[in-house]
């Protein structure tokens, strides 16, 4: 029989896997016997009553929501890697989204950066909630020239109502990545409003 202190620690460790506090840094991953990842999360003042959420369901939720975006479809943007608090969106250059000098238009770069930040935020919210951008600021660091553009959204701080996120946009050329834009955004969780969900 193990000492009481060891048993307590083991019990506490098992409990932590199921009752972690809400927040990106406190997210914990476990695996089922069949190796499917399972996320256990909660958020400060927001997720105390949330049930355990299968991470695969969250990925499907993000992909389903993204598929409804007419602008992303028009731009030709596609979803890349998704994890809780992090989303990647790719964009290929084309004459349809260029500006007068042949660079990809800053509006297109801003749109994919905002969307990556928004979906990173949504990935931390309870099912049934929607997300809307309340403000963003973007710094355009270099002309958008490349074979492909990758926007990587990441949550910096998740809150009950407002979430702070950022997105870095990279131009990929000949396999090398160059940072061309940096966005910070504040996103709002919306619940119980007609037409706004996931």
Short description:
It contains 4 helices and 8 strands.
Based on the model shown, name its key terms:
single chain; 198 residues; alpha+beta; six-stranded antiparallel sheet; 8 strands; globular; disordered N terminus
Q: What does the secondary structure layout of this molecule look like, with pairings?
A:
Elements: H1 4-18, E1 28-31, E2 37-40, H2 55-67, H3 70-75, E3 78-83, E4 86-91, H4 106-122, E5 130-140, E6 148-158, E7 162-173, E8 176-190
Antiparallel strand pairs: 1-2, 3-4, 4-6, 5-8, 6-7, 7-8
What this model shows, in words?
The protein has 198 residues and is α+β, with helices and mostly antiparallel strands. The protein is built from 4 helices and 8 strands, in the order αββααββαββββ. The protein has helices at 4-18, 55-67, 70-75, 106-122; strands at residues 28-31, 37-40, 78-83, 86-91, 130-140, 148-158, 162-173, 176-190. Strands 3-4-6-7-8-5 form a 6-stranded antiparallel sheet. Strands 1-2 form a two-stranded antiparallel sheet. It is globular, with a radius of gyration of 19 Å.
